[in-house]
Amino acid sequence: MTVSTGPVPRPELSGLAAYSSVAPGPVPVRVRASSNEAPGGLAGPVLDAAVAAVGGASRYPLIGGGDLAAALASSLGVAADAVAVADGALPLLDRLLLAYVRPGDEVVMAWRSYEAYPLSVQVAGGRPVGVPLTADGAHDLPAMAAAVGPATRIVLVCNPNNPTGTVVPWDALVSFVDALPPDVLVVLDEAYTEYDERPRPDDAAVAALADRGNVVVLRTFSKAHGLAGLRAGYLVASSAVAGAVRSVLPPFPVSSVAVAAALASLAHPDVLADRVAGTRVERSRVRALLAARGLPALPSSANFVWLPLAERAVDFADLCRAHGLLVRPFAGEGVRITVGDPHLRAVLGEVLDVWCRG
């Protein structure tokens, strides 16, 4: 007699690692600095817009998030059909992979980088090809270019990089894109771009990059805009690439509440600017605190700092958790600490007092 084992999932999902999270420790959480969220909650016109939208939430939003896409296109100087929106940048990356990656295709990425990248590539049926970061935690663009081969379909560049906070120089990025085959998609993940203080040259502007035809810019409202719990993100590319992504998105990819909040955030750039300015100040203060205790963090252009603690990373994170501070350890590599919360430095100072006594 044949014994049925039930439905069997695709073999490439076997052993797939789960997206990790940081659990609270034995004491109440005092500061959560593990997920790169913006400090505080919704406020002012963004809160007002979100609350007002809840009252109409019995109705579907516009197909394809068309109102949000149009506002983004106007602000970025691109055509409306060059934009796709969804419930975050990662779902857009997943749909991009679904649209372009065939079984066995390779996706080149720096490593360590955003931990969801290899998971998303494997789910799409592709093969992630990780290229080690440089000694100072940055993308090694020459090595990434050398890793591109006949099977390469996509190259991922996280700029600023998560979790190290390092950036790719704009001229180096443009030269890197210039050197790649035109049939290879270059995906620039700019989830933290608002925290990057560097001026952006014309040839690296979003509109100029999208015009190339093989470059995709991913951005999110979850970080600097402070809408992580509402979920909204967008993609800018050529009309052909953006259209391919839209073709595999659901008809209502963003909730009406998220659209309302995102539109309000775009309409009130002063709210965003104040939040970003405050985060940059806290970032400098946290780095100074760590350096004063003999733990220099890498220079960061994001809303977090990276401590390359190597084998001590998990021990440091455990000590933080015991003091009610949640940070994000990467075993054997380092610890990422989200900045912005004005209470962080006091709790981190307590942790460092104990850590430095050793």
UniProtKB/TrEMBL annotation:
Q: What GO molecular function terms would the record report?
A: pyridoxal phosphate binding; transaminase activity
Which Pfam families does the entry mention?
A: Aminotran_1_2
User: Which regions span the lipid bilayer?
Assistant: none
Q: Which domain of life is it from?
A: Bacteria
Under the heading InterPro entries, the entry gives:
Aminotransferase_I/II_large, HistidinolP_aminotransfase, PyrdxlP-dep_Trfase, PyrdxlP-dep_Trfase_major, PyrdxlP-dep_Trfase_small
EC number(s) from the headed UniProt entry = 2.6.1.57
Task: Tell me the protein's name.
Answer: Biosynthetic Aromatic amino acid aminotransferase alpha, Aspartate aminotransferase
Q: Does the keyword Transferase apply?
A: yes
* Keywords, comma-separated and alphabetical: Aminotransferase, Pyridoxal phosphate, Transferase
Residue ranges constituting the Aminotransferase class I/classII large domain according to the UniProt record: 53-340
Q: Which organism is it from?
A: Nocardioides simplex (Arthrobacter simplex)
